[in-house]
Design brief:
The protein is globular. The longest helix has 16 residues. By secondary structure, it is α/β, with parallel strands linked by helices. The model has no long low-confidence stretch (mean pLDDT 87). The protein has 2 domains: 248 residues, Rossmann fold (3-Layer(aba) Sandwich); 103 residues, no CATH class. It has 14 helices and 17 strands. α6 crosses α7 and α6 packs across α10. The protein is 31% helix and 25% strand.
Length: 383
């Protein structure tokens, strides 16, 4: 799957994203506040709208998503219900009923297969009985052959941040997961399994594959070993003094050279944990996934950015990446053909391909980060 184009209009807040085109690898760059993070957040929001009933943040929003899936081009076009703008609690979550679909279209290879309005729901031009207006046509018709690929594609929009490690280690739950996902491929596709649970199963059931992750991690950080286990196992003292003794708790442990004790996640830097998350997330992502990373360099040090950037670039033929970054190393080492220059005029956001900007087509010996800083499109990114 590849996101080809995306546009979004939040009429309630007046925020508009003009149509943006994406390739296999996309680096969103621009001044702080232009809307880079918003673009990723909106993609994440519409994914949830397509798959769940969690729609609190899309009142009075419209969007159009154009994606390619295994040779088929899908367009998903939506308008959501509005709210009373005169109410004082307009921005309070829970102040309103869940927003519902007032318009929805699904087009496949130029043929309209779903057309929905307040009063009718057409499926291949045939009228359907009244269906839930709070659920997307993609969810309602997910078992239909022509809709199923679109539903599955939305499940592989990956937008994750490091979650808390203070989670119980439940042996019966892990046993059940191993039964439900008996192969490595099925484990990769387990959308709702927490990443460190996947990592634990990989370590225990596919040690040679986990070793690949370890070796990649050891190229970035000077450590001798890494292990996913329990706090009781990896840091008994910390377990005894900090957590209830009636439960086991997940932990990540690293071991430094000439050290006998494990260093667990409560004493591991956020950059080291984030690097491990990215390595595992990319490893587990099925071919055709879309991985979105906001502030890619956040918490990262100079010692891990080069290798991690190279690691991501190696996977860009099989996985679509949409990243945001301000970091000179990241910007300098990603070809300008993959840059997307984000600008904002008022509340209207426009994204330009770097290839369309003549100033970047130069033989200048200035590094690319400096060229970017000197661009009119960058300097005047917010108007």
């Amino acid at each position: 799957m590849t996101i080809r184009k995306f546009e979004f209009y939040d009429k309630l807040r007046g925020w508009k994203l003009n149509e943006v085109s994406f390739g296999n690898f996309n680096l969103l760059v621009g001044l702080s506040g232009v809307g880079k993070s918003q673009i990723i957040e909106k993609l994440n929001s519409i994914c949830h709208v397509g798959l769940t009933s969690q729609k609190e943040d899309v009142y009075d929003c419209e969007w159009k998503l154009d994606i390619s899936i295994e040779g088929f081009n899908y367009i998903w076009e939506v308008a959501m219900s509005s709210v009373d703008r005169d109410r004082n609690d307009i921005h309070l979550i829970g102040a309103y009923d869940v927003p519902y679909f007032i318009k929805e279209k699904v087009i496949c290879n130029g043929e309209e297969i779903v057309s929905r309005s307040k009063d009718k729901f057409l499926w291949s031009k045939d009228s359907l009985p009244k269906l839930s207006k709070n659920e997307s046509a993609i969810t309602l018709l997910r078992d239909e052959d022509i809709i199923s690929p679109l539903y599955k594609a939305l499940k592989y929009f990956i937008f994750r941040q490091i979650s808390s490690f203070i989670q119980p280690f439940d042996k019966s739950s892990i046993k059940r997961l191993r039964h439900n996902y008996p192969t490595l491929d099925s484990l990769r596709r387990a959308k709702d399994v927490i990443w460190y649970v996947k990592a634990y199963i990989l370590q225990e059931d596919y040690p040679s594959e986990f070793e690949l992750i370890k070796e990649q991690y050891k190229e970035i950080f000077k450590i001798s070993d890494i292990k996913i286990g329990t706090m009781r196992e990896l840091e008994p003292l910390g377990f005894q003094i900090g957590l209830p003794i009636q439960q086991e708790w997940f932990a990540v442990g690293i071991k430094e050279f000439a050290m006998s004790d494990w260093i667990t996640n409560n004493r591991i830097s956020s950059g080291m944990l984030k690097t491990l998350l990215y390595l595992l997330e990319i490893y587990f992502a099925p071919k055709g996934s879309v991985i979105m990373i906001d502030d890619f360099e956040n918490s990262m040090g100079q010692n891990c950015l080069p290798q991690l950037t190279d690691y991501i670039l190696r996977y860009s033929n099989d996985i679509q990446f949409i990243l945001t970054s301000h970091h000179p190393y990241v910007i300098n080492n990603i070809p300008t053909k993959w840059w997307k220059i984000v600008t904002r005029k008022g509340s209207e956001v426009t994204v330009k391909d770097a290839d369309s900007i003549p100033a970047l087509k130069t033989g200048s010996k200035l590094d690319k980060f400096t060229l970017l800083m000197n661009l009119k499109e960058y300097e005047e990114g917010i108007q």
